[in-house]
Specification:
- There is one protein chain.
- By secondary structure, this protein is α/β, with parallel strands linked by helices.
- It has helices at 9-20, 54-57, 59-71, 92-95, 129-145, 159-167, 169-178, 180-205, 237-254, 271-275, 300-308, 322-336, 350-360, and strands at residues 29-35, 73-77, 82-83, 99-102, 107-110, 150-153, 210-213, 218-221, 224-228, 257-263, 282-286, 312-316, 341-344, 348-349.
Length: 361
């Protein structure tokens, strides 16, 4: 089973750092994971979860299953051993008063603000039950994995996405029309409490002055995070500039590396505004359900804007088979070069992974 001490971690760190700096990497950053024909070590017995919450809260079992995954797969190129302990996408909402709904395939957050006129100031509460439990989960995980793997920064999520979880998306739309100044005040409060929580988890997950983030296989020196506003699919460009950009800019200024998660065709209209955030380092593109993968020509205008702004690109290739993924990768490299390009692939056979690695290195 591979660990940080067996994968050439020093070289991987350097290549990630080059990617963030949009420097010369001679080949794109690659996330490649290959299935082994036989497990590298005997597998441990996995217990059956009796209810959905267990798959998010049972730390020893989460780590056991991750060990089994690494016994059956080889990490290649810039893939590295890591483990996530997310309480869904957007756990900041839990620390601010929401209660979770655990399902087998997701976690949702139940709105907790029914009267906007009575919305209390959003503050850091060290006694919040979900925050205390989440912190204890990370401490337990560290005691198990030691320095063999990286613990990922949890997916806190920010700005309007957090407010939507607390308030309800439809209600928040009306609030932005009826009480825009109040919503801007709440965004300022979210910005403040985000970093109070980020710092607490950074102390738990940081390793040699760096951190890995739970989403999109990113690592960086200092404080590294993925940012987003999926709620922006409902916004006009003017609303995005008014309500979201100030929060994103504030976050980017307090992070050492930042990647924005652009989610689906309805969010493409916000790329020009994002590219004007000088402090933003990279853009990750999620194509959306039933859409072609990241190598399709339809998405090239997005990438053109990113490269023109001097930022890094994160792209996922998954349509077809390994030959199609390789062809897509080579097309992107021909158009954009290798600097500031990070390509992610599905899990594949060892033969396919070795072929792609030889061609792209």
């Amino acid at each position: 089973m591979q660990t940080l001490s067996t994968i050439g971690w020093s070289e991987i760190r350097q290549r990630f750092d080059n990617w963030w700096q949009r420097g010369n990497t001679n080949s794109p950053l690659l996330n490649l994971i290959a299935r082994l024909d036989e497990p590298a070590e005997p597998l441990e017995t996995e217990k059956k979860f009796s209810e959905p919450a267990e798959q998010y809260l049972d730390v020893p079992e989460i780590i056991l299953r991750r060990r089994n995954f690494y016994r059956q797969h080889q990490l290649m190129a810039e893939a590295y051993p890591q483990v996530s302990l997310d309480l869904g996408p957007g756990s900041l909402a839990l620390y601010l008063g929401s209660e979770p709904g655990f399902a087998w395939d997701t976690v949702w957050y139940n709105p907790c603000v029914t009267d906007i006129s009575q919305w209390p100031v959003l503050k850091y509460n060290p006694n919040n039950a979900w925050l205390k439990r989440h912190i204890e989960m990370f401490r337990q995980a560290r005691s198990i994995v030691g320095d063999d793997w990286l613990l990922n920064m949890p997916d806190l999520i920010e700005n309007l996405d957090t407010l939507a979880a607390l308030r309800d998306s439809q209600e928040l739309i009306y609030d932005m029309i009826d009480a825009p100044d109040l919503i801007k005040q709440k965004l300022t409060e979210v910005d403040s409490v985000y970093f109070k929580h980020f710092e607490q988890f950074y102390d738990l997950v940081s390793w040699q002055g760096s951190n890995s983030f739970t989403a999109f296989n990113i690592w960086g020196y200092g404080r590294t995070a993925k940012l987003q506003c999926d709620f922006s699919a409902l916004l006009s460009p003017a609303q995005f500039n008014e309500f979201v950009v100030p929060s994103l800019r504030s976050q980017c200024r307090q992070l050492d590396q930042s990647l924005y998660h652009l989610d689906g065709p309805d969010a493409i209209k916000h790329v020009p505004a994002l590219m004007k955030i000088k402090e933003l380092d990279a853009l990750q593109w999620t194509c959306g359900a039933a859409q072609p993968d990241g190598a399709h020509d339809r998405w090239l205008p997005i990438y053109d804007q990113v490269k023109e702004a001097g930022k890094a690109l994160w792209i996922m290739l998954y349509d077809g088979n390994a030959q199609d993924w390789l062809a897509g990768a080579e097309k992107l490299i021909k158009r954009y070069g290798t600097d500031g390009l990070y390509l992610n692939f599905p899990v594949m056979s060892q033969a396919d992974a070795n072929h792609i690695l030889r061609r792209l290195r």
